[in-house]
Amino acid sequence: MKLKIAAVGRLRAGPEADLVNDYLDRFDKAGRNLGLGPITGHEVDGKKGGMAAEATLLEKAIGNSGPVCTLDERGKVMSSPEFANLLAKWRDQGASEPVFVIGGADGLDPALRARADVSLSFGKMVWPHMMVRVMLAEQLYRAGSILAGSPYHRV
Q: How far is C-alpha 42 from the geometric centre of its chain's CA atoms?
């Protein structure tokens, strides 16, 4: 099952990009035998039109992908094993290409949030959207490790 990350903003060279690339590479390697991956990324520019303009660009990046999972502070807080189970469920149900959507500095447009099949939160704190990419990449790798029975995830 292919996966997609659609995000507002360009991830420039630096520590965040290094971490994202490292975790996504690890996920691609670990996920092959599990029927997970590869992951593609689609970045859209933040626009002066705010969340509505960003939502239009994100909708284009989402395309026919699905299910749609938004990363949003109002979303559901999941444990890592619950997240791994969600990925396995999508894979086992034949999901074509789940897409994880990360908004810009102001978040996601309400209409785009309403379209989501799942909304995921990394806690009640608000995180910079570039850090959310790092955390998502790590959790994807962790989910793959959990599903593979790897010792990376410890309880």
A: 11
Give me the count of residues in the chain: 155
Residue type, 124: K
The pair phi, psi for residue 5, each rounded to 5°, is -115, 120
Q: pLDDT tens, 32-83?
A: 899 998 999 999 988 778 889 999 999 999 998 899 999 999 999 999 999 9
Q: Helix, strand, coil: what percent of the chain each, to 5?
A: 45, 20, 30
pTM of the model: 0.94
pLDDT of residue 101: 97
For residue 38, what are its two tokens? Answer: 């590869």
- Domains within the chain, CATH numbers bracketed: 3-148 (3.40.1280.10)
Q: How far is CA 67 from CA 19, 24, 133, 155, in A?
A: 25, 19, 18, 28
Q: Are the C-beta atoms of residues 103 and 97 closer than 8 Å to each other?
A: no
Half-sphere exposure of 10 (CA within 13 A, CB side): 4
